[in-house]
Amino acid sequence: MENCSKEILENYSNQTTQSLQQIASQINTITNQNQLNNIWNKIHKALTKAATKHIPFKKIQTIKEAYDTSTTKQLPLFYRYKQIQYLKNHPLSSNFLTLLHNYQTEYPDNSISTNSSLSDQIKNEFQLIKTVLNYQQKQATYKEIQQKIENWNKVFNETPKLFYKNILEKYNNINIDRLLLNNILLTDQNKILNTVHYHFSNYFKEKLLQPILPSSEFFQLYQLYSELETYYQNLFDDISDQEWNEIITNLPNQKAAGPSEICYEHIKYASHKAQKSLKLFINKCFQLQKVPTEWKSSNIFLIPKKSN
Fold first, then answer.
1. Among 20, 73, 100, 165, which one is most buried in terms of CB atoms within 10 A?
2. Contact call for residues 273 and 17 (beta carbons, < 8 A)
3. From CA 236, how far away is CA 112, in angstroms rounded?
4. CB 161 within 8 A of CB 153
């Protein structure tokens, strides 16, 4: 969003104001988890819809798209086609004669003459250009297919492993072909998958908290310290305007968004009224001591290290 103009940000701000103000009155009525989730879905939709409409972004290609990307340059005849199409559809345009003269000058092989109806001549020229353009596009598509076939044949002959990897759409997968478990080396693929699944399922499942006994070495660490209690008071009080402004102002830019696809800039550039609604919603989360279910999800990417 760093390259957005002031006008774009204002449009985004205005739309978030209109959308979130309609939701603000519903926030005070939230009393349970389902209502909290429903209101969050509305807020999420309002922010993402405004961002998609007003904020230009650079589409980042996936690995698959990067492999499949081909040149999208239009054929030279396409621009001639668009010119004659405009002349056919806008005969009453104030600059029609100028555009017609430019077209005839730029393309001296045109079939337009003044001997008959100009409108009919332009329509005939349009049909002629359209027919030729369709033929050229089919030929270009055929050549592109032939080129892709040749490229795949080359990849298959030179690097068959990469060929099958691309065909099966397997990109940057982490393949665990052996696993050491309790000094036992597992090589069977099914056993490895089951073991890994069990490990992560067990690791992230909710665990019951056991009471810390006085005999435990950690018992003293969890005793109350009166001098620190002030830091834990009023944790669930409503967020003040000053606190909110300080937090929003200090949010970093250009950070990856989570599963919600809402980044910090979406909040920072929302209008004051929209942010007021957001603050009201978060305060409601404090009051209920609950958060939307979607907030409990995150994107986890395994990054293999060289040592692995």
1. 20
2. yes
3. 78
4. no
Sequence-distant (≥ 6) Cβ neighbours of residue 277 within 8 angstroms: 20, 21, 23, 24, 27, 43
Q: Which of 71-85, 147-161, 162-176, 252-266 has the lowest mean pLDDT?
A: 162-176
Tell me the per-residue pLDDT of 262-289, one tens digit each, with 9 for 90 and over: 888 889 888 889 999 999 999 999 999 9
Which one-letter amino acid corresponds to residue 8? I
Segment 202-217 mean pLDDT: 85
The confidence score (pLDDT) of residue 67 equals: 45
What is the distance between the alpha carbons of residues 95 and 19, in angstroms, rounded to a whole number? 41
Q: What is the DSSP string of 227-296?
A: GGGGGGTTTTSPPPHHHHHHHHHTPPSS----TT---HHHHHTS-HHHHHHHHHHHHHHHHHT---GGGG
- Tell me the C-alpha to C-alpha distance, in Å, between residue 231 and each of 103, 224, 237, 241, 291: 76, 12, 13, 20, 22
Domain ranges of the chain: 6-61+236-296
Degrees to nearest 5, angle at CA 260 with 20 and 52: 60
pLDDT of residue 3: 61
In sign, the C-alpha dihedral spanning 242, 45, 288, 221 is negative
Is pLDDT above 90 for 41? yes
Q: Which of 260, 266, 291, 263 is nearest to 37 (CA)?
A: 291
| Cα angle: 236, vertex 47, 298; to 5 degrees | 65
Residue 281 neighbours by CB distance under 10 Å: 21
- State residue 66's pLDDT score: 44
Q: How far apart are CA 292 and CA 164, in angstroms?
A: 42
Give CA–CA dist 273/271, Å, rounded: 5
0.70 cut: is pTM over it? no
CA distance 217 to 293: 36
